[in-house]
Structure of Cytochrome P450:
Amino acid sequence: MEHLSARLIFDVIARIVFNFPLHAQTTGSQDLEDLRELILLVEGQSDITIAYNPVEQIKRWWRRRQVLGRLHPSILGKIHERFEMLVDEKIVPSRKDPNSILDLMLREHVDQEGMTKENAKLSKADVNLLLTNIKALLVGGHGTTTDTLCYMYMLLSKSPHVVEKMLQEHIEQLGPDTEVSTQTMVESPELLQQLPYTDAVIKETLRMFPVGYGVREGPPGAKVTYKGRDLPVDHGVAVSTQGHDVHYNTRFFPDPTVFKPERWLGPEEIPRSYFRTFGRGPRACLGQNLAANELKVILVMTVRDYSFECVGLKPNDKPKTTWTDLDTVFGDIVFQELGLEAKPRGGMMMTVKKRT
């Protein structure tokens, strides 16, 4: 399920970045395969048997060189093609309503007095900056959303009552069947903001399986107090924040191992500081609204017609940890793997069946 979901989400973020499809779901996208291989190469560096093995490092350097040798020309070709088209047709992308993120990035480069087809050129520094940012958008824009979708289908597979309540909301707000609902979303996308229960399902999934984390560097003299002791966190110490400490704390979320979207719809609003998945402040996730809307659209277009079931579950006889007992239902797949994000273990193998 992870790889199939990645193709779907990648097609969405690629369309937003470039304003044309890369066809990952149909013919396949070499760009996606190359990005995912780069991610695996980076993730492997946390393994000491790889990080301190010179032979393995040479192999990985060579493989990374091969992958980047395909990926960089592919992305650069898209950048230059779009830049030349904007210059040729004398189009200055709108700042408020651009056709793509790439258009917004190129705006300042084409909005220059006296620019013509003959003298239009992107500097090496500009090209490198565009390339780096587009790679970051493509990686960040598909990985965490893919992970969340997998965990959501996993939780819904054991929660038919949640599925039914969500379906009822879709029928009431968007229409009696998937075809009508899809057309309604196209004509009135603002209705996506009128799906509070669906939104609660997404939040509850992210509470139970936060896929991101933040890393900060403390300023000189920074410290934290733990059990009466002051612990220094300056001089280059990386401080990582992650959601599990709060999300599974019974002080903030009673019955934390129960998948209960209703907790987000109660009379007492849950303080924003209790929900740590997207981070807080100026460094909060830039794509959180996009991710939420993507997931809403996907749920509307799938859960009414299809059911999902995890394959090869091996529930544990007793919990392996003190903070969750979900492994007695799903087995070890509830323990997320650490990569660039906290991702599904083993790719989230599932069967998908047409609902009758």
Residues 203 and 278 are 11 Å apart (CA to CA).
